[in-house]
Amino acid sequence: MENTTPLEILKLDGELGQVYQGILEACKEIAEHLRYSTSNKIQTTNDFGDVQLDQDVQTDSLIFEALKNTGMVYAGLSEERSYVTQLDDNGKYIVTFDPLDGSSIIDTNFTIGSIFAIWPKGDLNEMTGRKIVGAALALYGSRTNILIYNPDTEQVDEATLQKTGENELQWVISQKNIRIRTDGRYFSPGNTRSIQYNKGYRDCIQFWSRNGYILRYSGGMAPDCYHIFKKGEGVFSSVSGEPKVTPKLRLLYECAPISYLCEKAGGLSSDGTQSVLDIQVKGYTQKCDIIIGSREEVERVERFLQNGK
Ligand code: AHG
Ligand code: MN
Ligand code: MN
Ligand code: MN
């Protein structure tokens, strides 16, 4: 049957658009690479103490190379190389990214992703997430999708990797202007080892369980947050119970990029007291608590955490 709707290929113009093109190119390669790869632990750890898989370092290299090829990226930092890697002296941007989110669930063939934030060139340690100028969240599941903040329309759009020719894969726009409603029924509670030390978080999870909320937790921040964007509602949380259970997720590579997308889509992000985008960057391995998603649900978690103190 003839396809009557014209395919709208995702194209972005300008210098920032070229950075996005690099990201799109890298994610396309990663999607193809992962489909036929095997997971082997290699004998190295990253600065966060994670034992690296060969896929962590392969996807990391693919992204660094694609960013360099754009000629628009001054420097890059990633979960696997959490220091400044200079790419192009003339570049105007810094890209921070998690090349492979979900390496602990890749052996079970759960959905995994890549997370990106684009910052202006400068000292990241003098910035907050408010300086971010673009972000993307790719998902490698039964399909390959990406959410991007489109600087031309100032909206969050979704693209899907599709076969457009015999052997040609292209990013086709599959949903425009993704919005997150103010309240939501889905909850995705992460870092739950903390609840024995954090009464507020424990009470909050109990509230969700007793009030008809629906659990959605895969063990990957990328797919769990993607669920919120796609359904347009819900809340993802990763909350610590200091001093025994410390924050788990990384500000530059995971929390700030997804918070940027979430707030651009009408949602809210919080570290318990302030927006994740207002957290002052203090180092390249900084971690933070995060609650993200539907505005009223995030505010409810903040109240539970305050009351539990
Ligand atoms: P990564 O695979 O990039 O190291 O990140 C894993 C993270 C994140 O995706 C997820 O939300 C969290 O680890 C899951 O941990 P818990 O189930 O212990 O919360
Ligand atoms: Mn890791
Ligand atoms: Mn991750
Ligand atoms: Mn990772």
UniProtKB/TrEMBL annotation:
Transmembrane segments: none annotated. The keyword Hydrolase applies. GO terms for biological process: fructose 1,6-bisphosphate metabolic process; fructose 6-phosphate metabolic process; fructose metabolic process; gluconeogenesis; sucrose biosynthetic process. One of its GO terms (cellular component) is cytoplasm. Belongs to the FBPase class 1 family. Coiled coil: none annotated. It comes from the Eukaryota. One of its GO terms (molecular function) is fructose 1,6-bisphosphate 1-phosphatase activity. It holds the Pfam family FBPase. It comes from Stylonychia lemnae. Keywords: Carbohydrate metabolism, Hydrolase, Magnesium, Metal-binding. This is Sedoheptulose--bisphosphatase. Pathway: Carbohydrate biosynthesis. Residues 11-161 form the Fructose-1-6-bisphosphatase class I N-terminal domain. Residues 181-305 form the Fructose-1-6-bisphosphatase class 1 C-terminal domain.
